[in-house]
Each structure stands twice: as structure tokens, then as C-alpha cells.
Amino acid sequence: MCIKFLFDRTFAFIGIILFSPLYILLSLIIFLSMPDGSPIFVQRRVGRQGKTFKMYKFRTMHKHHNGSSVSVKGESRITPLGAFLRKWKLDELPELWNVWIGDMSFVGPRPDVPGYADLLEGENRKILLLRPGITGPASLKYRNEEELLANQENPQKYNDEVIFPDKVRINLHYYYHQSFALDIKIIIFTLLGKELKENC
Prior knowledge:
The protein is mainly α and about 200 residues long. Helices cover about 45% and strands about 10% of the residues.
């Protein structure tokens, strides 16, 4: 959608300009509190057409850890500052750069780490035709995902067997019902911290 393309580029650029003082401040705070690495965390994620790209976030974990790809609230690898950044989603601000350069959109499926995309089969692979987003309907439903996983005996298993398949189902529904109006609604609901009903 041309209007979505223009919306993403325009507001990503505006966001980068407006938040540039905050970028500098947070980078300095992260560097001083976690001097063992860069303030920016760079990770390979799977994007549109299954191609990988570098996603940028503020670092919220100790540089050297042996954790899994599933994050759980309260785990030791997440620093106190990192927990604060995650709670208010400030760690995702650098993703505006990903939107600006076209790797991501404001709204779409959250990009997974390599490996999970390989689990998509048949019709579910249509999700890979979408540009990944900073937020989306699945992100709204699982906005408290880390807290949910913290209550599970086996967080990795619960993610793989319950959360991931449900996210795939929700994202496929979004694929078939996507529109610019729906994207605006998702952005508004994200800012309000509300869950979006799937029939919207």
C-alpha cells in the first residue's frame, strides 16, 4: 500500500528527529550503567520474503549471557535499567531507523529470530509477505508476554507450543484483513495499552 509506505517513512523520520535528544540521553545512561558493551543491541531478524536484516534496539541485557531467545520477566540477564526500558517499550525506539530504511513498518508481525520462520508451513508462510512491524495485533495480545512466560514451568516450551502458534494465527488473520485504517487503529490501541479484538 503506497499510503502505508509514505506514512511509515514520514513518521519514522519525524520520530527520529523528535526523539534524537532522548536517544542521546538513553545511550549515555546505558553506557554508564552497562559499560560492557554498546548501548545499541543489534540482532539478525527475519523480515519480508524471509530475508534477514539487522534490527536495532537499546540494550537491556548484560553483554555476556547464556540465555535463550525467549525473554522472561525478572531473569538475571536483564538489568534493572533494561527492565525499565522494556516496561515502557523504550528499548524499541531505535527500530524507527529500521522503519525509515524500509526493513520494518510501524504495524506488522514482530520479526522473529532465524529458525522460527522455518517452522511456517503452507498458508502460514503468507505472513512472510508482510513487512514486520514495531507493533501489531499479536503484539497487542501478548504485550505482557514476559510476565506470562515468567509464570510457566517451562517458558521455552510454552512459547513454542502455545504463544508462537497463536501469534501465527493472529498474524495470518491480519494478512487477510490488513488496511491502513486497521493499522491506525492498532497504533492507537498500542499507545493506549489496549488489546485489539480480532474481528476489528
